């Protein structure tokens, strides 16, 4: 039984993006999900966790920074991601987002990297009680990932200058 449990844990999760939806503090291996179509946040209850999860602040130009941590090397622990954004925060209206700074596709070791993502031009985050949050689903090249809540600044327009982008990437 212990051997089966060990294999189940190994197959469960290999990279997570923080701050992760429904996770207090830094994500651990078991916090990563397997995002899929119609279940982009894995098995996390979006409605229950959306407003209570730590949100990443988007810059005025719509870019934001998140951190990916892998728990094993190789493609299985890939830190390279694709991103989808749901401006409603419900998990039902995802559209593609541009990853401006990505992680390593095939890392040799465990570690963390910053990701910089651009919300689609003209996006207005309207989710949550504050009506200014988006839900972002990340999926690694290895098929793991999770969702992150992003809070949009009141003046965000989806456009910005190079100083805002540089500040968001810093």
Automatic annotation (TrEMBL):
This is Gas1-like protein. InterPro entries: Egh16-like.
């Amino acid at each position: 039984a212990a051997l089966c449990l060990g294999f189940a844990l190994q197959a469960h999760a290999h990279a997570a993006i923080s701050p992760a939806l429904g996770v207090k503090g830094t994500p651990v291996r078991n916090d990563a999900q397997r995002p899929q179509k119609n279940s982009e946040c894995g098995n996390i209850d979006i409605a229950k966790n959306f407003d209570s999860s730590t949100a990443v602040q988007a810059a005025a130009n719509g870019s934001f920074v998140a951190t990916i941590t892998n728990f094993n090397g190789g493609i299985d622990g890939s830190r390279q991601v694709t991103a989808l954004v749901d401006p409603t925060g419900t998990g039902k209206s995802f559209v593609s987002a541009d990853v401006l700074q990505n992680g390593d596709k095939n890392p040799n070791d465990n570690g963390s990297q910053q990701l910089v993502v651009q919300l689609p031009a003209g996006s207005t985050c309207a989710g949550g009680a504050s009506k200014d949050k988006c839900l972002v689903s990340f999926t690694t090249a290895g098929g793991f990932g999770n969702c992150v809540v992003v809070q949009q600044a009141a003046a965000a327009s989806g456009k910005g200058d190079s100083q805002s982008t540089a500040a968001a990437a810093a």
